[in-house]
Amino acid sequence: MGKMSLRRIIPRSQIRRRVKELAAQIRADYSGQRPVFVCVLKGAFVFLADLVRQVGLPLEMDFIVASSYGKGKTSKGQITVLKDVTTDIAGRHVILVDDIIDSGLTLQHLRDHLASRRPASLRVCALLARERVLTAGTAIDYLGFPVPEGFVVGYGIDYAEQHRELPDIYVIEDE
Ligand code: IMP
Ligand code: MG
Question: Is the pTM of this model over 0.90?
Answer without folding.
Answer: yes
